[in-house]
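Sequence, please.
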């Protein structure tokens, strides 16, 4: 039998290896930016065109390369960082394997221009598909510039798997932000399609965060600073009240290298126990410094995952540092120049605030014996929920209780004389209870509203005719480049949902109208909430995209717990819910209602 095993040609092997390193334009951005940082640059410029499909160019003022190094850097496993395996224990630079440039050159058309500061001439090299086409001398500024054009031009199957320009640009901006956050002492610039998105001067960490994510972050940050003999922790975490329902800005850096770590994330979430609910996510920008010998950074091709030699110790130190920082923030008293009347009464010698004179204090005896007529028994029970004497039936009356989740029960007299009326009442401003023929039903009003809005939004997206309410005064909203690219990609769909948006130049959008059912909130908050929920959606098909957008808009517009509803509003919500195609589950797959049968009640009461 003939021999069938043979060595792959170098260019084929490089294309296969490129699949581990170069997955999308953002992968090229990461590798080139990290090389510029390693070169000692003080200014780095990133230029992208068509979200990196057409061009990714990184220029720096680093030390440059000699003609020999300029040619050798494109070979696989050519590196200046390590000589022997033991050097891995002391690596502090970004790259060290010598795979990135070789992988990029295997799947793109690349041009390198580099010149050392002490030399008069530099070197220009053009490579296509791992093959060197040109190598010549050139006169230019010191430093290095690498332009990567037509990514995946020779691997069409990989190019077809790229997402839309908005999604790919979002990934590019994320990689840019990670490198810029880790090195605030370096000036960074990002130019997208001839438009300057970021121009970041050298700064400290706080200024760099504000420069990347906006001035609103300045008030949201709590400084973290702790150092031990093993580990130094510094940076910032977000104040608990600014936590969001979707993952926002969460960054870990170990020795100035961005990493992902579910273990460290758990330490952060534990530090926020009792401060942030489980469904909300705080922000953090944490920088860990420790001996390189205590970590293994060679466990992942992109080096975004590492192993700690003593992970339990790192966990404990990070958790304690964040917990201490949050404690220092929380003990600062907040000044209230308009204290509650109850507080004034207590400090003026009046003791605790007394109950309103019109409502007598409720006593257990007021419930009466079970032999009393129903009308007599119900009187004290109504006072327990403080519906108020003489109030109009069905009126929305807030309770004196300061808790937002107020309890409200409709008086029985509301249904007297209305034999066809279905008895309903609201519990804690969150649930609606309705009688069924065989028992009763409890509806989660927020999830029910989400289901109604979700199916309505899907219809608007299919028909392209959502109702919009014109704003009396248009509002301008400034968005980060990644969010602006996502909005521009979704502009037809957003308009179909009733959001009248117009580009206003630069990073600004003008909001002329909002969906007719949108709450009377800041349009910027609604738009930001929808975008946060869409950032992590990966659906490429049209129907998946519509479902993700309809789901995000419904979640942002749905009523929140604590909203008191009238009887007619509850009946309308129930009718609209059961008119839906899938009334029993929310768009996220959670139940909207639970039913209880009379048999279950009889069993509980041992009847």
């Amino acid at each position: 039998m003939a021999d069938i095993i043979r060595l792959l040609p170098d260019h084929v092997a490089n294309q296969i290896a490129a699949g581990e390193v170069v997955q999308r334009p953002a992968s090229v951005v990461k590798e080139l930016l990290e090389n510029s940082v390693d070169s000692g640059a003080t200014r780095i410029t990133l230029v992208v065109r068509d979200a990196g499909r057409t061009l990714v160019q990184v220029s720096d003022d680093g030390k440059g390369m000699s003609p020999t190094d300029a040619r050798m850097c494109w070979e696989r496993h050519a590196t200046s960082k390590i000589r022997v395996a033991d050097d891995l224990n002391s690596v502090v630079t970004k790259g060290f394997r010598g795979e990135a440039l070789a992988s990029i050159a295997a799947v793109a058309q690349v041009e390198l221009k580099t010149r050392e500061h002490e030399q008069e001439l530099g070197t220009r090299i053009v490579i296509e598909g791992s093959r060197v086409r040109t190598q010549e001398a050139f006169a230019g500024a010191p430093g290095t510039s690498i332009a990567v054009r037509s990514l995946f031009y020779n691997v069409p199957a990989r190019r077809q798997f790229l997402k839309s320009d908005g999604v790919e640009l979002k990934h590019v901006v994320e990689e840019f932000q990670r490198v810029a956050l880790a090195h605030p002492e370096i000036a960074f610039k990002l130019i997208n399609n001839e438009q300057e998105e970021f121009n970041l001067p050298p700064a400290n960490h706080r200024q760099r965060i504000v420069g990347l994510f906006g001035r609103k972050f300045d008030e949201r940050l709590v400084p973290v600073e702790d150092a031990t003999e093993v580990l130094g922790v510094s940076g910032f975490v977000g104040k608990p009240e600014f936590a969001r329902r979707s993952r926002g800005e969460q960054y870990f850096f170990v020795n100035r290298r961005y990493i992902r770590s579910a273990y460290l994330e758990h330490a952060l979430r534990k530090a926020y126990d009792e401060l942030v609910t489980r469904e909300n996510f705080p922000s953090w920008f944490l920088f860990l410094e420790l001996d390189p010998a205590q970590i293994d950074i060679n466990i992942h091709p992109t080096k975004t995952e590492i192993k700690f030699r003593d992970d339990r110790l790192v966990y404990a130190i990070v958790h304690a540092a964040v917990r201490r920082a949050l404690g220092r923030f929380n003990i600062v008293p907040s000044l209230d120049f308009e204290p509650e009347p109850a507080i004034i009464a207590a400090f003026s010698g009046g003791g605790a605030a007394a109950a309103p004179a019109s409502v007598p204090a409720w006593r257990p005896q007021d419930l009466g014996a079970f032999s009393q007529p129903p009308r007599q028994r119900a009187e004290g029970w109504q006072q327990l929920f403080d519906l108020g004497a003489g109030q109009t039936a069905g009126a929305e009356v807030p309770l004196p209780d300061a808790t937002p989740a107020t309890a409200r029960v409709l008086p029985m007299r509301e249904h007297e004389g209305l034999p066809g009326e279905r008895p309903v009442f609201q519990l804690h401003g969150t649930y609606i209870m309705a009688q069924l023929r065989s028992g009763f039903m409890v509806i989660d009003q927020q999830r029910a509203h989400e289901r109604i809005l979700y199916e309505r939004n899907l219809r608007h997206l299919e028909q392209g005719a959502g109702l919009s309410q014109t704003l009396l005064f248009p509002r301008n909203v400034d968005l980060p480049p990644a969010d602006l690219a996502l909005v521009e990609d979704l502009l037809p769909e957003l308009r179909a949902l009733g959001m009248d948006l117009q580009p206003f130049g630069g990073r600004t959008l003008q909001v002329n109208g909002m969906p007719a059912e949108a709450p009377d909130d800041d349009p910027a908050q609604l738009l930001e909430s929808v975008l946060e929920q869409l950032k992590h959606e990966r659906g490429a098909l049209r129907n998946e995209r519509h479902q993700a957008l309809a789901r995000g808009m419904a979640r942002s517009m749905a009523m929140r717990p604590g909203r008191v509803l009238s009887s007619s509003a509850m009946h309308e919500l129930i009718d609209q819910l059961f008119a839906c195609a899938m009334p029993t589950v929310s768009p996220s797959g959670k139940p909207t209602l639970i039913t209880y049968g009379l048999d279950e009640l009889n069993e509980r009461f041992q009847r």
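The first helix runs from residue 10 to 21.
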